[in-house]
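Slide 14.
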Amino acid sequence: MTGRAGLPNLLAMDDDAFAKARALLLAEINDQARLTRAMTGREHFSDTVMAAMAAVPRHAFVRPKDRSVAYADRPQPIGHGQTISQPYMVALMTEILDLTATDRVLEIGAGSGYQTAVLAEVAERVYTVEVIGKLAAAAEERIAELGYDNVAVRLGDGFKGWPEEAPFDAVIVTAAPEAIPDILVEQLATGGRLVIPIGKQHGAQTLIRGVKMADGSLQTKKVLPVAFVPMVAGKG
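Slide 15: predicted structure.
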């Protein structure tokens, strides 16, 4: 695996207490993958993605009062009107990015840092942008405590991406804009993959997978219906 230098002893001990719950979650993700294969085209997720899901301690990314249900396959609130995504959705979005160990990934919406950590297990380098200051700071601290040394966190406007580090091999967006931001497509390398939910809050949303073509256009495919918090622009 890429990125994690090792858990601190206390966290590792804590991690052991959740081993059974994590194993049950992985089985549930496998079941969900089979049930949705007609829409996603993936009957099962790769060993690399499933190993990443097994390696990341989700209980470290939820609120203390929610730790007993950290491995339930559902989104959970993390404060500031945001959520930690459903584990199946995290696995699916990582899967359809088709990452390799040499890929550089841009993530829009760090949130708690859970999806970030899963990406860091798979890719060479992850650049994540979060618009909410307290979430960005907490995610950066949590990721560092867990030993991930291949992640950079920025407080900023996700609609602007991270131009200084472009182009990226993959871009993943964990909140829903109403249309694909052109800037994120511009920051994607030719052949790069984009995974993003599109649609209005409380309205129909669809997970989209796109591939950037040689002429700069984005070839897109609808994956499945989803429900994400809205993507919001930064303030100045």
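Speaker note: Residues 6-10 have pLDDT under 50 and may be disordered.
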